[in-house]
Amino acid sequence: MNKNQRLTIIFILLGSILISGGIGLRDYVNYSLVIGWLAGFISQLLAVWFAIKWYNETR
Question: Would you list the domain boundaries of the chain?
Answer without folding.
Answer: 3-58
